[in-house]
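Exercise 4. Each item below gives a protein and its sequence. For each, produce the structure-token representation.

Item: BolA family transcriptional regulator (Arenimonas caeni).
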Amino acid sequence: MNPDLIRELIETGLPGAVARVNGDDGVHFEATVVFDGFAGKLPIARHRMVYATLGERMGGEIHALALRTLTPEEANR
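Answer:
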């Protein structure tokens, strides 16, 4: 899977989000997602929101996704 496709899926599924996705082997990825909608949510809830944008690709085409989820305020610290 292509990191750009993952970025597009996340940004489409979380309108207004900005995602940066890296991964060299096509199955293991790292992503930083900045989204207003993360405000007031625990990390596990934030991660679930991102996983929901990827659907059944998680655990299939995407073997592993390391996430860093931030609100815009957190990203600017």
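Check: DSSP finds three helices and three strands in the chain.
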